[in-house]
Amino acid sequence: MTIKLYDLAAANPKIMFGPFSWRSRMALLHKGLDFEVVPWRWSDPNIGPKGLASVPVLHDGDNWIGDSWDIALYLDRQYPDKPTLMHGAEGQAAAQFVMSICGAMVFPGAIPAAVYQAYQILDETSKPLFRKSREEMFGCTLEAIHVGEEKGKAGLAAALVPFNETLASAPFLGGDSPTYADFALFGVLKWVDIVSSYRVIDDSSDVGKWFVRLENMYNGYARDVPTVRNTR
Amino acid sequence: MTIKLYDLAAANPKIMFGPFSWRSRMALLHKGLDFEVVPWRWSDPNIGPKGLASVPVLHDGDNWIGDSWDIALYLDRQYPDKPTLMHGAEGQAAAQFVMSICGAMVFPGAIPAAVYQAYQILDETSKPLFRKSREEMFGCTLEAIHVGEEKGKAGLAAALVPFNETLASAPFLGGDSPTYADFALFGVLKWVDIVSSYRVIDDSSDVGKWFVRLENMYNGYARDVPTVRNTR
Q1: Which chain A residues contact residue B161 at CB under 8 A?
Q2: Mutate to test the interface with A, among B73, B84, B87, B166 (most CBs of A within 10 A)
Q3: d(CA B71, CA B206)
Q4: What separation in angstroms does the CA of A151 have from each of A106, A193, A199, B216?
Q5: Fold exhibited by the domain B88-224
Q6: Model-level ipTM above the cut of 0.90
Q7: What percent of chain A lies above the pLDDT cut of 70?
Q8: Which candidate from B94, B162, B175 shows the least CB-CB separation from A88?
Q9: Strands of B63-66's sheet in order across
Q10: What pLDDT band is residue B83 in, cutting at 50, 70 and 90?
Q11: What DSSP character marks residue B6?
């Protein structure tokens, strides 16, 4: 049975953009596993026998796994003969640290550009659920958080400065080839990229070049997915 | 001939506190190499035949190496049979990223607590040189940057949030044992710790516990060095 990955879908179910689900997608691609992405909406029922309430959810045989980090650990454990996402405790700590920095810097830098645009592409039933959840989380309206193109690009670029520095000296956060540390950041940026009416990422920066490098890997999987811009 | 490491010294030459030199010290300890620390002051001449103008400088046989990162790479290259500081390109990228985050977050969080206190312990000849250099760098006086104990602790704690998250799930940034990623952060914190009249680091936090763990390693080397507090 093919592995199934549940991802957050827009009104147009071909557009799927969950930042954490994108970490899992890239992990599945890296390991060379066949998988199918299942669109899931905020208004859909909880997922699987455990009633998991948020994506990603991985369904592999009898295993239902929520939470992208648990999915990554599961994939390395379950498929040790496939390419490794993280090399032992050292690789896990490095990926954890990138996730921590994403939480502290990259999400805060990306949310003003992305979250209202993400809201706008949802189906009408999901919209009020998403709005309520996010406005409680941020303590203000989606409209109050939202910024336009110029500020959106600048805010994200500022948050990516330390990543640019590292990626100026190595092609990947994982060194010579990508690891889950790369997918942790990529997921956040692919989310912004998919939902935004403009290209948020500066392709001339070191992060931008790295982003394109990852988009082109795995037969251009991430490059070729439906986005707000290419499905207009 | 014993390896020599030049480090920044206070008026009391036993107090040596360069943040980048501390990265190199921990690297030398981790590799189990014998070394001697040479106190260097801002008013001292440039170091070695290359006239290196800032510490750390490593003098090993015929080799004079400035810059803590170059020293780390040198040590792994020159002493491959000793414990490794970084495991290949993956470990180098992970350490680079921690250094980038130190530059973007930890130094800015630590400088208000540390820099004026560091200035105050310098010898009288070095003081004006240090003041001029730092005030040009920051664009304001040392007194304007300086904050007291409460704000000093809070500013550093805020910058360390993502590190706490990672160190809650692994004993070291390098995973099960320390790597140069750990020493990169440790150097910044040991600098603040040595020059400050109070304990800046919250020993009950995950970073604090990790800091004490590293202080106690290598026969308590970092724990037992002279500081402003224990030489009063």
Answers
A1: 100, 104
A2: B166
A3: 28
A4: 15, 15, 13, 46
A5: Glutathione S-transferase Yfyf (Class Pi); Chain A, domain 2 (1.20.1050)
A6: yes
A7: 100
A8: B175
A9: B35-40, B3-8, B57-60, B63-66
A10: very high
A11: E
Please judge whether B97 and A176 are an interchain contact, meaning their C-beta atoms are less than 8 angstroms apart: no
For B100, the closest of A89, A165, A175 (CB atoms) is A165
Residue A232 confidence (pLDDT): 73
In terms of DSSP H, where are the helices of A34-106? 68-78, 88-101
pLDDT at A183: 98
Cβ atoms of A77 and A88 closer than 8 Å: no
pLDDT at B132: 97
Q: Tokens 């640290």, residue?
A: A97
Residue A1 reports pLDDT greater than 90 = no
Which of B90, B160, B180, B185 to probe by mutation at the A interface, max A CB count within 10 Å?
B90
pLDDT at B232 over 80: no
- Residue A158 DSSP SS3: helix
Q: Which residue has the tokens 């530059």?
A: B103
Tokens representing A179?
A: 């690891």
Within 10 angstroms of residue B62's Cβ, the number of other Cβ atoms is: 7
Contact A174 B90 (CB under 8 A): yes
DSSP result, A161-193: HHHHHHHTTSSBTTBSS--HHHHHHHHHHHHHH
Domain boundaries, given as residue ranges, for chain A? 3-78, 88-224
The H-assigned helical ranges of A19-82 are 19-31, 68-78
Which chain B residues are Cβ-neighbours of A166 within 8 angstroms? 93, 96-97, 100
Query: Are the Cβ atoms of B165 and A92 closer than 8 angstroms?
Result: no
Contact B184, B98 (CB under 8 A): yes
Q: Element (H or E) spanning A132, and its range?
A: helix A126-138
On the question of a cis peptide bond just before residue A178, with omega within 30 degrees of 0, the verdict is no
Q: For the whole model, what pTM was predicted? A: 0.95
Please give the single-letter amino acid code of residue B190.
Answer: K
pLDDT tens for each residue of B119-169: 999 999 999 999 999 999 999 999 999 999 999 999 999 999 999 999 999
| Pairing status of strand B63-66 against strand B3-8 | unpaired
Radius of gyration over alpha carbons of chain A, in Å? Answer: 17
| Residue A173 near residue A179 (C-beta atoms within 8 A) | yes
- List all residues of chain A from 41 to 100 with a beta carbon under 8 Å from chain B: 87-94, 96-98, 100
> According to CATH, what is the number of the domain A3-78?
3.40.30.10
